[in-house]
Amino acid sequence: MIPSPYLLYLGNSTEPLSVKTSRGVAAWRPELCVGEYRGEACTLTVGLDHYSFEEAVKNGAKTLIIGVANAGGVLGPQAVIDVVAALKAGLNVASGLHERLSSHEEIRKAAAETGRQLFDVREPPAKLPIGNGRTRAGRRLLTVGTDCSVGKMYTTLALEKELQARGVNANFRATGQTGIFIAQSGVPIDAVIADFISGAAEWISPAREDGGWDLIEGQGSLFHPSFAGVSMGLLHGSQPDALVLCHEVGRAHMRGIPGRELPQLKDCLETNLKAARLTNPNVKAVGVALNTSNVDGDEAQRVCSEIEAELGLPCQDPVAMGVNKITDRLLECFESYELA
Questions:
Q1: Measured between alpha carbons, how far is 263 from 154 in angstroms, rounded to an integer?
Q2: Which residues cross the membrane (predicted)?
């Protein structure tokens, strides 16, 4: 377990998507957060108190979370300097970037000298199994998307909260670095060797006999040329009984690929259902989760109504509207569940 409370590192970020890890931890685990650290050029905040490393330690922080992401998932020169400074101030450091903290000699040396710990959460568990596709007990829901970073983690966490509030056994299963910081467990699925992705999904959501739900955080998109392989592996290994499609209203193009349009919702949903049927022929779509942060409330309601009419599924923004209608449909489709 990563020692808490946390200080969230924003560095010199200026692009909102780059701090989604810090924002996610602050939103879903505020009780674990002391504050945030921003560099001089940072133009963003996640709404927490701003502290230096020394101030954070005085206020009880135990671990600096590197809550930023960039193309390639690398530590820049300034981030390395900051990590060393945080270690010397008395903080452990945890990172979800592809580039490991331990790959930098100056970081390893500072950790050894100060007795602080380094946590690279994008290091997959050892000896993951190869997927086999065999039917296993329990119920599983997977969030899928038209693109990356459209709200799959937020949707999955919102469904966990709603189901638990109704007395249903439900557990969030993290597959990305932000989710792992929030759940304090999980598998960084995009760091798993391709042959083992479906096996990792099976491992994170094993058979369960309590009638409850594993709610599996989706990654990428079957329609994204860069990340479709991860999405497919999750679909097959999760063996989902239910899918929720996630989409951001008004997104101009696939993330990182200007000029490449997002798929139509109906096409995206049908493609995901077809792929999921390889390991669960009875999979059902139970809702559409929209990120409507780019439009006003009236427009968000209008878009939701249009999608409901087109797809025959409940459509909500999990943050602005909740997920009560999607949860209703889920439980209507799967009447056999056990109260906690």
A1: 21
A2: none
